Amino acid sequence: MHFASDNSGPAHPKVMQALMEANDGYRMPYGADAEMAAVRDRIREVFEAPEAAVYLVATGSACNALILATLCQPWQAVFCSEVAHIEEDECGAPEFFTGGAKLALVDAPDAMMTPEALRARIDRTDQGVVHGVQRGPVSLTTVTERGTVYSLDQLRGLAGVAKDYDLPVHLDGARFANALVTANHSPADMTWRAGIDAVSLGGTKNGLLGVEAAVFFDPAHAWEFELRRKRSGHLFSKHRYLSAQMLAYLTDDLWLETARAANAACARLVAGLRALDHVELRHPPQANMIYCAFPRGLHRKAKEAGAQFYSLGALDGDDDEMLGARLVCDWSASDENTDRFLKILGA
Amino acid sequence: MHFASDNSGPAHPKVMQALMEANDGYRMPYGADAEMAAVRDRIREVFEAPEAAVYLVATGSACNALILATLCQPWQAVFCSEVAHIEEDECGAPEFFTGGAKLALVDAPDAMMTPEALRARIDRTDQGVVHGVQRGPVSLTTVTERGTVYSLDQLRGLAGVAKDYDLPVHLDGARFANALVTANHSPADMTWRAGIDAVSLGGTKNGLLGVEAAVFFDPAHAWEFELRRKRSGHLFSKHRYLSAQMLAYLTDDLWLETARAANAACARLVAGLRALDHVELRHPPQANMIYCAFPRGLHRKAKEAGAQFYSLGALDGDDDEMLGARLVCDWSASDENTDRFLKILGA
Amino acid sequence: MHFASDNSGPAHPKVMQALMEANDGYRMPYGADAEMAAVRDRIREVFEAPEAAVYLVATGSACNALILATLCQPWQAVFCSEVAHIEEDECGAPEFFTGGAKLALVDAPDAMMTPEALRARIDRTDQGVVHGVQRGPVSLTTVTERGTVYSLDQLRGLAGVAKDYDLPVHLDGARFANALVTANHSPADMTWRAGIDAVSLGGTKNGLLGVEAAVFFDPAHAWEFELRRKRSGHLFSKHRYLSAQMLAYLTDDLWLETARAANAACARLVAGLRALDHVELRHPPQANMIYCAFPRGLHRKAKEAGAQFYSLGALDGDDDEMLGARLVCDWSASDENTDRFLKILGA
Amino acid sequence: MHFASDNSGPAHPKVMQALMEANDGYRMPYGADAEMAAVRDRIREVFEAPEAAVYLVATGSACNALILATLCQPWQAVFCSEVAHIEEDECGAPEFFTGGAKLALVDAPDAMMTPEALRARIDRTDQGVVHGVQRGPVSLTTVTERGTVYSLDQLRGLAGVAKDYDLPVHLDGARFANALVTANHSPADMTWRAGIDAVSLGGTKNGLLGVEAAVFFDPAHAWEFELRRKRSGHLFSKHRYLSAQMLAYLTDDLWLETARAANAACARLVAGLRALDHVELRHPPQANMIYCAFPRGLHRKAKEAGAQFYSLGALDGDDDEMLGARLVCDWSASDENTDRFLKILGA
Lengths: 347, 347, 347, 347
Description:
Largest interface: A-B, 49 and 49 residues
Keywords (chains A, B, C, D): Pyridoxal phosphate
Distance between the termini of chain A: 16 Å
CATH class of the largest domain in chain A: Alpha Beta
Subunit structure (chains A, B, C, D): Homotetramer.
CATH topology of the largest domain in chain A: Aspartate Aminotransferase, domain 2
Radius of gyration of chain A: 21 Å
Cofactor (chains A, B, C, D): pyridoxal 5'-phosphate
Number of helices of chain A: 14
Number of strands of chain A: 11
Oligomer: homotetramer
Largest sheet of chain A: 7 strands, mixed
Number of domains of chain A: 2
Protein name (chains A, B, C, D): L-threonine aldolase
Low-confidence stretches of chain A: none
Order of helices and strands of chain A: HHEHEHHEHEHEHHEEHHHEEHEEH
Family (chains A, B, C, D): Belongs to the threonine aldolase family.
CATH architecture of the largest domain in chain A: 3-Layer(aba) Sandwich
Shape of chain A: globular
Structural class of chain A: alpha/beta
């Protein structure tokens, strides 16, 4: 009963198989491997973006921070949600990589910015006045940090606001495959056609060992990105082992298959939770992550039974008090475990 | 005939096997995996350092730069050889991670600093005078960037100079196993007992897919290192896959076995080259890397025959002119390829 | 009728006189001038802090950022008001000097943080968890950015919260003299006795050409500060000209005399504004700065008559609509100008 | 007998007078003062550069570092002499302001780079290879750090090398007026016509209290420079006091008058030293700074008699041993003092 995070589960067997196959003989290092050429072609095909610049790194924080550093000057602000991963979960990586840019936080109910809130925050930043930081990129996340998914119209609306101010748009797609499965639009529609300039395309949370792709639809910044990646220690010498993972991920749409499995497991869990009077959903769960609340006593009981998940508060206290929980399903989640967990909560 | 680099070869089968085995079920993320606990214990045992703080990252540049940033203030100088990897091959990673420290270069024949040259360079840095940068860590490399290996006395001598000035000492051990095999001393003797405070313990060039260990013999800086690692995007969520590689590496001394294989292959190559009048060795090859020179025409001939290695200059030009070459043997090098290559050079 | 800012007025004649007198013959450079020794003694006397480390720089942004960089690690957060000068008016100087620290904003009605809001914001910062930035210094401002002044109890309360978490406290005292005159407590009571660790002691806005003093009550960080000051280009070679200004400022309490004059001019203006039905005060004006609102038409009329002040919005629009204004009095403000201005607003 | 530095002497009376006159009434802050408009016009006239972007800061280190940060990317190298002020005397300011660029040192006999040495150092920097830092600006200094002055041909030669590689050129002109007087060419010939892109135009060492001008002949970088200046705390609110100094400096060629006085005093001192058998000149003194050597005993004797200068080594030791000295003349040096000093050395 593992609902702690989609970064705790195993890698997909096909990915492990690809790693094994990539381990024959010699390869050119530092991204000159044949697998990387295939990854580049495949990502350009998947995103219908023949000009895109494509790079691989091993962590999501590196991918986000390197893209933002490339799109942002040190004296600019990055506009993002008040609960954005780049704000709350990267120990200041964007500030470090950009050379001290500021994150300008935008109100975001259910972790989704509204065009009005974004516009208001941008307007508050005096462009052309030397005393304050200047306007920089807008960074969106989908699947959001609360499990919601931007609709195509929402993405277009937010990117449209950025374009009104001539600001670049970054998409943190650590769970982009899960968002795609929910939104049911093409990768191109959900990104560059909607006005997004660069994407952190996640693989680690969706069946890889640890690979994310940085995709720039305009290759103008490609060389700068390569230098920033090397300078920050994120260029792998034995790069083939990153390439092989990403190539397997995108072959025969494995990435969508694993995302569908995770979202389906989550939907099953949501349906079960909805049926329980003493469980409240805190945000609409639209992909593979649930924010909910149930009595503290049940937190303890479930954990004693072996369930793993984040309790959003202390476990000791009044049994009947409602306590928040975060539940995440990964591609390998089993119906059996889900039903066992629901049975415990239902008891 | 692959002599381009020890980062171009395959990972060792036992390492791949360990990766497979680590891929069962769920693990705690971010270094809380059971494999990491075992790695920590094993490294402390290998280095006879029960207090050591041990962390894993995926690249050597990250390992070096994170250790240096932890040992160095932004207004200090890092003393290193004029051909140090941190100076020439990391695109300014030390400057980036430290917040703008300066690398103070020390003359180093055969890439080995002398105590006199180090002392002179430190003396040139006015400590306590606000106008210049202050004295910071000393960074040594062994196997050096020219294929030589510091003797135990040399390490003690250089670390002793640093201690005279109360400066911390970092060892870039990207090829530490190869150096150990040559020097034939214990890891403890070659590091903390010689006066070294922190080591970048390499695995990538010696049979892993991509893992290096940062080892601090004094754990005082442990928490700062963890924050710097996270902040720079080098903390892996699915950390088990780093741990499993390093654990396999240190089990049954696989790391020494692969290093011995690489050094033996190199020795065979050296013996063959010495027998050829038209080949000059440029530095004493003491581990698995050779700097030599032979006529340009032979460079072309060897490459046409499929040999891979770095020519230290342009391939087009006078056939008879001596042209430098770098030849590196990895753990998987075969006698057959070595002999084929020697035959071509001998023809 | 100059109410734009207290950085637009002239320097005090006694300060100019001191500059002239300091211009005789030679002096040791870089702060070794005799005037600086006298400044150090005088500030230690004024603050009853015989151990204090004292340094001079030429701008308030440099003083704040250098102190914060000395008190804060790159991976920490600085807790400050949502309208703090360091957040809104320094183009990211704190982020630049600290190497990418994050400013964590605290709700602050009338620009004054409450202990509850500060505590809540600190609690939201997970100390000891590697994913987020860590807790760093608390930065207060008095006179605040909205013209209010913390009472001694308020300062003690906020510093007390910081001490509960073992966090250092910085005071942005760009208008510290004006605050002292209002609060009517000793410099020691308003700073280190209340729990403040370092002060930016402003002079520029209160009669100097351009000098601020960085005062650390604990000299532990002195040498680091000196290196940071030099490294950021803020150490003056002909330092005597900074020293002479600050010495004149603190001689015969000139600093309090000029602050009293500014506050008195402001009180006269406030009294006049209160008498006008169509003028609203937006924050309680407690020193030498007023935030108020009056009909847009009067903004235009006053400016046409030569009044200088900041209108907090566009001048073109409905005449009758209330429009915000910031009015600041400096030490040289004249009753005549104040009364002329009030007459215009009253018409 | 003050030969310690040209930053120890007084400001010129005309400059003090201008400060007094600028202290009447109110001025727009932050560089919007009328004096600054006049400074901008005057510098454009002096340099025959009607498009030039002109900014004032208070220190030479800030001027150099801000210009370099504007011309250099964090992953690039700044090419400069091994004894450049930016390398030896600014505590790493260029590294701090650039975000971690590397200073690549060029051999420079008499502190003057040769085109051959510069070209060789640039060639050693692999452009387009991601492993090393990339080629960035070339930074020259004249008057050099050893008192020599580049001829017009030398400046053209070095700038020409930079242009061959398409690299921008910065001139550290802390003593530019002294160099102009020696070289006897126009400011335009010695800068942009010779291929220099930006100049740090010094005033502090030549009769001002503390002002340097950053001059960009191509205004493309103007706004970036303004943001960097503000962000680093170098934008003065009461800017008029910087403007007034620089305006007086450039009025009626006061800057050349003071430089001529300093150079003449130095020439008198050089003539006297040449007449003394036991004094050796270490570098050709071509402006207002002398590097020489004379017996240690005379160092002590001169200092006991009140002479101030830097001895380049310890004062205690063998009296007869030759010990280096640095002697600098400022605009206010008197023949009487010079002759007194020569008499002591001659005795």
